[in-house]
Amino acid sequence: MSLLSYRLDESHLVVELSEVVDLDNGPAIEQELLALLPCCGPATVIVDVHTPLLTPQALGVLLRVRSEAEQRAVSIAVVARHETTREVLSAAALNRVLSVAFSLQGAELRGRRCRPGADAPRGRRLRERLERRIAPSDPAPRPARAVGPYADTSLPRFPRILRKR
Predict the structure, then answer these.
(1) Which pTM value belongs to this model?
(2) Sequence-distant (≥ 6) Cβ neighbours of residue 56 within 8 angstroms
(3) Among candidates 19, 20, 79, which has minimal Cα distance to 48?
(4) Crossing angle of the two packed helices 56-71 and 26-36, in degrees rounded to 10
(5) Is 130 buried (19+), middle (13-18) or exposed (0-12) by CB count in 10 A?
(6) In this structure, are residues 66 and 76 in contact, taking their beta carbons and an 8 Å threshold?
């Protein structure tokens, strides 16, 4: 079995996954994906899932390949073209972990943004801005006051409304 792969540009490799991943072919697909990972350099591997059926074995393969890719400083993005595939990834809470996109162009953009080290200056600026906003001399916010017949035994139901006082 061989996976179809091609390059979009210098830093994007697309691997098409057109078969259902099961117990029989899962290890072979994983080995092939691992063999396609570049050994070094900033690159993105986009796994283009053409099958609407995404099995637990396929999720395991994608997560193991992502783990190995992180060690090689390569980002992984997944194109989920079918709605059922997107639903499975969403139900497994893997949308952000696997950088799921609806199209190849979306995965390319996610790969650029999610490349390890690409957003380091932005993260540093955000952290500095938050540190300036939260100064140690600022007084602690007042706790919300409980209102109602069970005020001394329960928390208020709508704390945001009560905080405005």
Answers:
(1) 0.64
(2) none
(3) 79
(4) 20
(5) exposed
(6) yes
